[in-house]
Write a structure and sequence with these properties.
Elements (H helix, E strand, L loop, with lengths): L2 E4 L2 E4 L9 E7 L5 E5 H9 L3 E6 L5 E8 L5 E5 L7 H4 L6
Parallel strand pairs: 1-5
Antiparallel strand pairs: 2-3, 3-4, 5-6, 6-7
């Protein structure tokens, strides 16, 4: 069974295309330590069932993070609530 993990920050690339804007996602563990995964690794964890990621948008309401595929066949992360662009993730603060 997958473990639920909250994404609370991201690291953006310098790319303009929304499908290529996220380099890494991150958050805070229960013990207060910070974690970060590059987007490819986060996608792998979703695909193999290790983790189910979510964001809180608005605070207190969980929105699931899913894998989407661009028109060019590239996988990227977005939330269930997003259209084509990963706006909920892109609006998160930058990971420290």
């Amino acid at each position: 069974m997958a473990q639920y993990v909250k994404i609370s920050c991201i690291v953006k690339t310098d790319r303009v295309n929304p499908h290529e804007r996220i380099h890494s996602v991150g958050g805070v563990n229960a013990d207060g330590t910070r974690w970060r995964l590059n987007e490819d690794k986060a996608i792998s964890f979703i695909e193999d069932g290790t983790y189910e990621f979510y964001v809180e948008r608005p605070p207190g309401q969980r929105v699931g993070v899913i894998i989407a595929t661009s028109a060019w066949g590239n996988k990227y992360l977005k939330t269930i609530a997003d259209g084509e662009h990963p706006n909920n993730l892109l609006s998160l603060p930058t990971c420290l």
